[in-house]
Design goal:
heterodimer; A: seven-stranded mixed β-sheet; five-stranded antiparallel β-sheet; B: alpha/beta; five-stranded mixed β-sheet; two-stranded antiparallel ribbon; globular
């Protein structure tokens, strides 16, 4: 059926010329397009191979990087016509494990200028034929090829072609520019330093024109100084064997998401192109752009380490201004407020206790994270918030603090020994607990400067990792440590008075806001029931707080205290049953393994059969399964129409299944076949949609 | 633990011809462990392979790789296949599957090394399948690169391609220098475990 569509499309496009027939190969649709409606004698006509790649699949740039192959075009043109070099779109980095390829995803447009001879006769037509070969990869690679053709009239003048002119012009304007920049490179002993004068702004990455010169997967630290750009490169094997006289390539500058390519033709210099200080700034990670870290931590020079700790500390300070830590900042502020008029020693003790709370919690979380990761868990920083139970309990704690600040239960003032809340309790323990809370809240929050140190810490040896986290904690506590250093600052606060109570009441709302956020998190993790349980927990904990307050008013009535404790336990109990909800928990349709004998008999009796050729390693397959095949709607439809669902699993090699796939002219999965009685199956698209599948299934039913 | 994390991230430096080849000890599909040093005095060929890769299939379907292996065996050259595909990735093979694959296609390497953790692949900075190395009897790398001169998955290109490995073995026979010591390997990327 798809072939028929394409045939119809071919007829249609032949009538309109200028657009070649679209050819669908395994994972791409390709066609030739032209910038203008006619070939004008003596001028250059820009044509392009326009491809639409399946989602996730990529093809390669002229230097494909560690593996892969560039596009190959073999033209057959009328006499006198000449095709130029392929103009590639700007490359992107495509990492695959430790390897990196350079290539294109989505809808790449490969430009080719064709010189039209002056002798071409207006009124005739010209046909451009090309055999295109390319390698297309997801993580598996499939060589594809297509024979493409474009017939275009020869005329004295030409006009724009809607939809094509725009695409080609956009591709032309994206071609790397030759700005005639002066570029030189030299060995630095352990790498290559590339120096470019007058480079445009933006984050730079150098894509070498040929392979073997520069390691594609090595990071490229960059530094700028007075309009000069320095880039550090790791030499490839060809470079190591014999350094070239020239290093050609394209630098892509990323200016706030806008990419500009500039052609570079660097000349080898025997003299150093960078001073030792400039080199140090290179190896140290560049001009403040995180991520430009020597990949191997062992390679990190002391300067870089210093920078990592610097960033961690700075990041910690900045965390205080991040929205996610705000509630704790308010909490801390309220405890600072209660220091108004306090002794210097008291102020100092408070700041130290808070810092200790922050540091101890950071260290504990870092150790826990490293141990869990060592055990093979795929966890990142902030992992504790991946558990709805932890988030729920956390919400209750924050809610209680809010009620506390609002004054529902008074603290330590009116009642002696009423077991005041730790947080509000004046003195060391309370400040320590505030520090602990600050870290728990701040953990999922990665603010400016933190990407680099945290990424580093997760790959560094344990003592180093913990040191980085401690530096971060020190940064988080720094503003309050300043208080300890200059206790007189606290003296600036007004005299203690009713304003302190009002301010704390205002701060309570910051806590309630945090509860709303946490409730939202729970809703995503545990679904509507999770929110219900959390709501009940909040009401019960409010009851507990109220009873507790009453107990305080009555001078510590034992029965009320017991009731309060009971309410609190009742509040938390349901939370511990929270479970992460799977995206779709639906009754399973009976799926049968692929069986050709059974298929033949089902076909004979006219039972519709749907076959899912799939594999665990096939991302598209899993996507289709998740989004379409395993939805309750589709499963119901299978049951209603009596369609048999067969699974042909290619996760492990299976010659029968491979042969079945090849009979359909395909090379791999996903492949979806629908048999309705004897005869050839209908092939469904590789990116399945529920609508498309419904249409097919219902047609038979 | 942390050091394995780090080694997962990085490929080692390329072994350059003229330098000592990285040592390795890997489990062989044929049984036992195989190390580089046990072949002292013999020329060793390393072939990174992945049976699902079209570029590997090109050389096996046309019997090109088998011929080269047979020739190596006849000349007392040790041919080691290396499978660095991680479990679950294309080309992964346990011992039984690796043996069966070779039986089915008539391949005859001396050993097939099961490098599922990718440690040997990373030590050699193996990038593609196929990716070929030739190491002399003193453990010095003599060739690092592609199998031949035409980087395609098309069987029809084989007759016109110059085989780098065959040339290197020929040139080394009389104690001579390998002419082309380095080339850009072509093929599918080695399917290492995700780092």
């Amino acid at each position: 059926m798809i072939r028929v569509l394409f045939a119809a499309f071919a007829l249609f496009s032949a009538a309109f010329a200028q657009t070649g027939e679209a050819v669908r190969t395994g994972h791409a649709t390709s066609r030739l397009i032209a910038e203008e409606s006619a070939a004008v004698p003596g001028e250059t006509l820009w044509v392009a191979l326009a491809q639409e790649l399946d989602e996730g699949w990529h093809v390669y740039w002229k230097n494909p990087g560690d593996s892969g192959l560039p596009l190959y075009l073999n033209w057959s043109l009328p006499a006198g016509y000449e095709a130029g070099e392929i103009g590639y779109p700007l490359p992107h980095r495509l990492p695959l494990g430790p390897l990196t390829n350079f290539g294109h995803e989505g809808s790449p447009t490969f430009l080719v200028p064709i010189d039209v001879p002056a002798s071409a006769e207006p009124g005739t037509t010209a046909t451009f034929d090309v055999v295109a070969e390319w390698l297309i990869c997801l993580d598996v690679c499939i060589p594809e090829s297509a024979q493409l053709s474009l017939t275009i009239p020869v005329a004295e003048s030409a006009s724009e072609i809607p939809g094509q002119t725009g695409r080609i012009q956009a591709a032309k304007s994206a071609l790397p520019r030759d700005l005639g920049l002066d570029a030189r490179f030299a060995d630095t002993g352990d790498g290559i330093a590339l120096r470019i004068e007058g480079a445009p702004a933006g984050e730079a990455f150098f894509y070498p024109a040929v392979g073997g010169m520069v390691e594609p997967s090595a990071p490229q630290p960059a530094a700028r100084e007075n309009g000069t750009l320095f880039i550090g490169l790791a030499p490839g094997i060809d470079y190591q064997v014999e350094p070239p006289a020239e290093l050609e390539g394209v630098i892509v500058f990323d200016m706030d998401g806008q990419e500009v390519g500039v052609e570079i033709d660097a000349v080898r210099s025997e003299d150093p192109v960078a001073t030792p200080a400039q080199l140090a700034s290179l190896t140290g990670g560049g001009a403040g752009s995180p991520g430009e870290l020597p990949r191997n931590w062992q390679d990190a020079p002391p300067l870089a380490l210093l920078m990592i700790f610097g960033f961690a500390f700075l990041g910690g300070v900045v965390l205080n201004a991040m929205p996610c830590v705000f509630p704790i900042v308010f909490l801390k502020a309220s405890s600072v407020v209660s220091l108004a008029g306090a002794e210097r020693g008291e102020v100092r003790k408070d700041a130290y206790a808070y810092t200790a709370g922050v540091l101890v919690t950071f260290a504990a979380m870092a150790v826990l994270l490293l141990v869990l990761r060592g055990a093979g868990a795929q966890l990142g920083w902030g992992f504790h918030l991946q558990s709805p139970i932890a988030v729920g309990l956390f919400a209750v704690v924050v809610f209680l603090i809010g009620l506390n600040l609002a004054g529902l239960f008074e603290i330590g003032t009116s009642v002696q020994g009423a077991g005041a809340s730790l947080v509000q309790k004046k003195g060391a323990a309370g400040s320590f607990f505030t520090g602990l809370l600050a870290v728990l809240v701040a953990a999922p929050c990665i603010g400016p400067f933190l990407g680099l140190p945290i990424g580093y810490a997760l790959a560094a040896p344990a003592p180093m990792a913990i040191a980085v986290f401690l530096a971060l904690g020190l940064g988080l506590a720094a503003p309050y440590l300043l208080l300890a250093a200059f206790p007189r600052v606290a003296g600036v606060l007004p005299k203690p008075g009713p304003w302190m109570v009002r301010l704390k009441q205002v701060f309570a709302f910051a806590m309630f806001g945090t509860v709303v956020w946490l409730a939202w998190v729970v809703s995503l993790q545990a679904g509507p029931n999770g929110v219900l349980y959390l709501g009940i927990a909040l009401v019960l904990s409010a009851l507990a707080a109220w009873l507790f307050g009453l107990a305080q008013e009555k001078g510590g009535a034992r029965s009320l205290q017991v009731a309060a404790a009971f309410a609190l336990v009742a509040a938390c109990a349901p939370l511990t049953t929270l479970q992460t909800v799977a995206p779709s928990a639906v009754a399973s349709v009976d799926k049968e393994p692929y069986d050709e004998t059974r298929l033949a008999s089902l076909q004979a009796e006219g039972t519709p059969v749907f076959i899912d050729f799939t594999a665990a390693w096939c991302v598209t397959c899993q996507y289709n399964k998740r989004v379409v095949l395993d939805t309750s709607e589709i499963k119901d439809l299978f049951a209603q129409t009596g369609t048999v669902f067969m699974v042909a699993d290619l996760t492990n090699p299976d010659p029968v299944i491979t042969a079945a796939i090849e009979r359909q002219g395909r090379s791999g999965v996903p492949l979806y076949l629908y048999y309705d009685g004897p005869g050839e199956p209908e092939i469904l698209p590789q990116i399945l949609t529920a609508e498309r599948l419904k249409e097919t299934l219902e047609k038979a039913g | 633990m942390i050091t394995t994390l780090v080694s997962l991230i990085a490929l080692a430096a390329n072994p350059i011809p003229g330098q000592a080849a990285p040592d390795f000890t890997e489990e062989a599909a044929q049984g036992g462990e195989v190390s580089l040093d046990q072949f002292e005095g013999k020329t060793v060929v390393l072939e990174w392979t992945n049976d699902g890769c079209p570029f590997v299939q090109k050389h096996y379907n046309a019997k090109n790789m088998q011929q080269l292996q047979r020739r190596a065996a006849a000349e007392d050259v040790v041919w080691l296949q290396v499978i660095s595909s991680a479990e679950g990735k294309q080309g992964y093979a346990d011992a039984a599957r690796a043996i069966k694959l070779n039986e089915d296609r008539g391949a005859m390497p001396a050993y097939t090394l099961l490098d599922e953790d990718g440690s040997m692949g990373r030590a050699y900075a193996a990038k593609t399948t196929p990716h070929m190395f030739v190491i002399d009897g003193e453990g010095i790398v003599r060739y690092n690169g592609a199998i031949d001169t035409i980087p395609t998955a098309n069987v029809d290109d084989l007759p016109n391609a110059q085989n780098y490995v065959a040339a290197a073995l020929e040139q080394m026979k009389d104690g001579g220098e390998v002419v082309t010591k380095v080339s850009k390997p072509y093929g599918c990327s080695v399917k290492y475990a995700d780092s």
